[in-house]
# Entry
Amino acid sequence: MEVTALCFRLVTLGVILLGHVHKSQTRKSDAVRLHVSPNRLQHFEYESVTFQCESTDGSTQLKGIRNTEEIIPACSSRKPSPRSLCAIDKVYSADSGQYWCETSNGQRSNSVNITVTGGPVILESPALVSQGEAVTLRCIKKTNSTNLPVFYKDDTPVQINAAEIRITNVSKSHEGFYKCSFSDVETSPGSWLLLRAKPVVSASSGHSTSVLILLWVAVVILLVILVLVLVGILLIRKHRVTDAVTVFSKIKRGASRSGGDNHTRDSSNEETESDDYSAVPKKPRLSHSRVSLNSTADKD
# Structure
């Protein structure tokens, strides 16, 4: 029973370890994520924008491209990992560009194209969209207006005189270049509505993943070997105990037999001695009267 329980525990541990490996591998495709607050691709100048990088290894850094040059954005304030924050108190048109999060081992999040405008109108479109999500597009302007906007997709009107566009189940067919305008003001900049793609994993990251898998396989193999060794040790001990009990029983049985034989011999000797004593003849006793008569005759 003890051997069975021990084997069951070790096998359970191995299954749990494999489950963790599988779980970690399934999360690799979304190990690094970028969040933008406010959650939109377009921003007015002088607004505050916060970029948040989320990763599992805590080595994530925000990066960007401005005018075809890769940069590390200058943040007004930062917060360390695992969710590193980069807050920019005031954004300007020069801050427009592509942003993403990247870890030290080369894993990258999805990138977003941020547009900062000094104009009066922007299109409110989510920074990152996944397939199947609900998406709402709005047209925002700095000054109040009673007019309703017109929405365009790829320069073609898709919604006229509507406060917003609602897409309940976004798919590839909804991807495109969107913008909006009011009749009494300018048109907003355009932004691409793109579904979130799988993060890019570098060759070094793939190598580390392979090493991790091999490591866990080695751990499972060692657990199996350990189970076999423990079972062998317990079986050897069991056989030794059984042999010892058998030998002890034989010794005990032999001792009891020898003790019985000695007792039989002692009894036989005692009976022989008693027979010898009974065979010795007894001397006759003289009666007291005969002695007295003889003494009287001598006197006469």
User: Anything to note?
Assistant: Helices lie at 2-27, 203-279, 288-299. The chain has a mean pLDDT of 77. The longest strand covers residues 135-141.
